[in-house]
Design goal:
545 residues; mainly alpha; MetI-like fold; 2 domains; globular
Amino acid sequence: MDNSILKSFKLFGFLRKEFLFKLNLWTIPSFFIGLFIFIPMAEILLSLASPSTNWSHLKETVLFSYFSNSLVLVIGTAFLSFIFGVSSAWIISNYNFRFRKTLEWVLVLPLAIPTYISAYAYFDILELFNPFLIWVRTNINFEIMQLVNNSLVYLVTILVMASVLYPYIYLLARSSFVKQGKQLRDAARTLGYNDKSIFWKIALPMSRPAIVAGMSLVIMETLNDYGAVNYFGISTFTAGIFRTWLGMGDLTGALRLSAVLMLLIFSILIFERQLRSRSKYHEVLHSKPSSKKTLLSKDKSIIAIVCCLIPLMLGFIIPVSRLISWAWISRKSVSDYVSIELIVNSLGLATISSVSIVLIGIFLVFSARYYKSAIINFSNRLAILGYSIPGAVIAIGILLFVAQVNNFTNYLLTGSLYLLLFAYIVRYLAVAWQPINAGIESNCDSLNHASQNLGSSALTSLTSVNLPLIKHTMLTAGLLVFIDIVKELPLTLILRPFNFETLSTATFDLSNQAQIVESSIPALSMIIIVLAPLVFLNYRLENTK
């Protein structure tokens, strides 16, 4: 009884401190903005209690296949991305060989290619296996041929997706390997450890948080994908949501599938966080990163180059080469498939959305950190959950929320650009929030405390202290959001206004009509737009190492 009373007093004291001393014109709007952004996700979770006439049928027939197919893709893509990303990062950060500097830059280029465009570039790869499948059917039986064919579809899809998603792991692992202290590796060498042992027993365990963070991004992108899995005919949760909603006309069933997928993702995130919380990672203080790289012999240099070229070839060179060749075939009808309007729509949407998201991220982060409010920090955490949820799920949650708003206000929001902008904020706020939060934490927290003691207002601290110090972080966050929005497909496909096309939707529509060759023109335009900010981000990363 005494303990419960003590806990009640502590809770009362905490709430009294939060509400009496930390609620103001900064924290109150921040709190409601965070909750407002979380509403579409809450709508999905609440839909678990809604009745659905087809839910029993979905559970008995396709739910397990959606789960198992998604699981196979996630495990396969994450594993292959880990192999591509970590091996390339280790080679680039520790060895010196010809073309190393060039490879260090170009290995990030597959990030410019959305998974669905890469899938279109490999559209006919499965046809190469037809003679083998015919031989299996003739000499063994039809069932084995089906099994082999299904396995090949999964393998090709995993290969296509991993070849464009591995840079998430490559960038974070490379940064971690570079920052690792030289002292530990030198000490290991004096104890007789070779490079192989150092990698497995020191470098890899120390880089585990960065690698796991990269793999989490790969997993989220895999679960979010619709274009690639739809093209290869794999029934994942995202494809099932589209099919249930648009094919069966069962919005409630699609909502329940979305809720199940959200719970699955949250379980993965909680498990990953619990797993990491059991281990501690420490950097060696005053240890300089190792700038001296091991010079490889000619034979080993060839092996290193080949290891780095394999993912680059699969993820960028082959897809872009095929797209260029198809675009050359369609060169006389370029204006039929790419217009100034398409480019302006994509650039305008991405620019306005990225600026809005960065501004909201700055406001939310500053309010929480300047006033050290636990409640605002909690609402911020709710608001940034959108990045871990597939775009199709967010789109359904937003449509459900907007339908309720329409009923109360008689104001039609569906099919407007404002709705699409809100959807991008829900989906990509975390992309800007994370670097801005890290930037203010490392550069501004102590200065904000000092400015408070000197009597400066929050607005003065924000404009005179925080913004100048995090201007490069703001630019990086904005460019990351810009890249994601230009490539985004499911959200735009569902929520775009009528007769409104972007480069991503135009590419999808053409390929969906079996006009693969013609779809290369908007696809290449999209890649060119994304390449410039991607190269700049890589340059910034190099300069801040």
